[in-house]
Amino acid sequence: MKFTHIKYIITSLIFVLSLNAKAQQDPSFTMYQLNMNIINPAFAGSQDVLDATMLIRGQWVGIKDAPSTQTLSISSPLGKNLGLGLSLVNDKFSVAKETDVYIDFSYKLQVSESMDLFLGLKGGGTFINVDLQSLNINDPLFNENISRFNPNFGAGAYLKGKNYYASLSVPVLLQSKRYEKEGNVVTSASDKPHIYLAGGYTFSLENDSKLTITPSFMMRYVSGVPLSFDATAMVGLFDKVEFGVSHRLKESFSGLLLFKFIKEFKLGYAYEHAINDISTYSNGSHEFVFKFKF
Description:
With 294 residues, the protein is mainly beta. It has helices spanning 3-21, 36-39, and strands spanning 51-58, 68-78, 82-93, 96-112, 115-130, 146-160, 164-170, 176-179, 189-191, 194-201, 203-204, 211-222, 228-237, 241-248, 252-262, 265-274, 285-293.
C-alpha cells in the first residue's frame, strides 16, 4: 500500500472519529468581546450606530487542513427601540465546510437612565458541504459527497450599562444532524444547542479614562462536552490602544492587542497557544478582527 493511500486513510479516520467522538461544537473566538453579534442576536443595535465586524481565524497553524473561520456581522438600530443585524460564519475543517447565515432582531427595554436590556431573536440556518470524494479513497463510505441545509433559530438577552455588560444566549435552539451516511456504515454528528454566558466591566483608573482595565469572561456549555471558560483582562491607554491576556481553561493562553486608529475603526490581533495535546503538532492559532462604526 502506497504511503499516500495510508495518509488519506489516516486523515479520513481522524475526520470520521471526530464526528462521533462528541457533539459538534461551533468555533471558539479569542476576541469574543468584539464579536458578540455572532453568538447573541440581542447585541444587534446595542451600539447605537451602524456596526460592522469582520473576523479571520486560523487555528492550529502547522497542521494541514486545520480549522479556519471567517465571520462577518452587521447591525444597526432601527428607530428608538428596535435593532436589526446580519451574521455570517464560514467554517472549514479538512473536507468539511459550513456556512451559517442568520438575521438578528432585537428590542430594547430601558431599565434605568444608564441601563438597557436588549432581547433578541436569530433566524436562519447552516449550509453543510463535505467533499468526501476529494479524499480519493476507494471505499463506499467516501464515494458520495454530503450537502444539506439545516434551518435553525436562537435567542438571547444583552444587558448594557455605562461601564459593563452581561450576555446570555442560545444562538441555535434546535438539535440537527450535521453529517450522515447511509449504506454499510453510518456516521453522524449532532449539532447541539450552545449556551453562552458572558460579561465584562471597565474600571477607569484616571478621571479622564486615560487608563482603563477591563476584565471579562465567556462560558460556553454544550451537552456532552466539558464546560468551556474564557477569562480575559485588557488594559486600555488613551482610548487608542488595548492589550491583554486571556486563558481558556485547560485549553490555551492568549495575548491580545487592539488599536483604534480613528473613532470609527478598530483593529485587533490575538495569538493563542494551546496547552493541551494539540500543542505538540501546532504552532498556535492567529485571529484578526476589523471593526467599523458608521
